[in-house]
């Protein structure tokens, strides 16, 4: 049998890692919060809570048999409640929706919330007394490192709400600190990843080292 020579394929060159895309900073900035929207399974109870307990105005509503943004064909009622600055919180009721799945970790039920601002600390305490009077379970008052005073509770849909007031008039002007903290956080995660260390453990070390900056003064 004649020898058959076959051409061997050249080895594939290793794929080059794409450099991360450097995004330009937007020249556009949102003017204000228009609305944050959630699901309700009982729009009547939601209206009662936000107009009576929270004192908000029933601001607007929409109902349809199809979602305009996606075209999904299910009926819904969309309702809005107006706050003092004109921003709103909104809800969708769509009969027949199953209950939402339980979160995979308790942190999801704590971190996901909406904070509503009061004028001052005295008003936060007036909210505390008012909500307590109406039987709501409250967490707080909590002093967040002399930057905020807050209380926490849930609406009838399980949405976690916060009533808060800034104790630091420049609370949302700490850009330099935020950039430094972001760099510390990302660098700590990357170093732990390179060294094969447990990332949460490395972050706990960072937090404990830096914690003094976040204690009430």
Describe this structure in words.
The chain is α/β, with parallel strands linked by helices and 217 residues long. The chain folds into three domains: 33-96, Roll (2,3-Dihydroxybiphenyl 1,2-Dioxygenase, domain 1), CATH 3.10.180.10; 105-172, 2,3-Dihydroxybiphenyl 1,2-Dioxygenase, domain 1, CATH 3.10.180.10; 175-214, no CATH class. The chain is built from five helices and eight strands. It has helices at residues 43-53, 106-111, 121-133, 175-195, 199-210; strands at residues 35-39, 57-64, 76-82, 88-93, 113-117, 139-144, 148-154, 160-166. The strands form two sheets. A four-stranded mixed sheet has the order 1-4-3-2, covered by helices on one side. A four-stranded mixed sheet has the order 5-8-7-6. The protein starts with 34 loop residues before the first strand and ends in a 7-residue tail after the last helix.
List descriptors.
217 residues; alpha/beta; 2,3-Dihydroxybiphenyl 1,2-Dioxygenase, domain 1; 3 domains; 4-stranded mixed beta sheet
Q: In which range does the helix fraction lie?
A: 25-40%
Q: How far is it from the N-terminal to the C-terminal residue, by CA?
A: 91 Å
User: What would CATH call the class of the largest domain?
Assistant: Alpha Beta
Percentage beta strand = 15-25%
Question: What strand line-up does the widest sheet have?
Answer: 1-4-3-2
Query: What shape does the CA trace take?
Result: globular
Number of domains: 3
Number of helices: 5
Give the beta-strand count: 8
CATH topology of the largest domain: 2,3-Dihydroxybiphenyl 1,2-Dioxygenase, domain 1
**How big is the Rg?**
25 Å
Largest sheet: 4 strands, mixed
Instruction: Please state the oligomeric state of the protein chains shown.
Output: single chain
Question: What's the pLDDT, averaged over the residues?
Answer: 89
What is the architecture of the largest domain at the second tier of CATH?
A: Roll
List the uncertain runs. 1-11
Element order: H for helix, E for strand: EHEEEHEHEEEHH
Secondary-structure class: alpha/beta
Task: Report the CATH superfamily of the largest domain.
Answer: 2,3-Dihydroxybiphenyl 1,2-Dioxygenase, domain 1
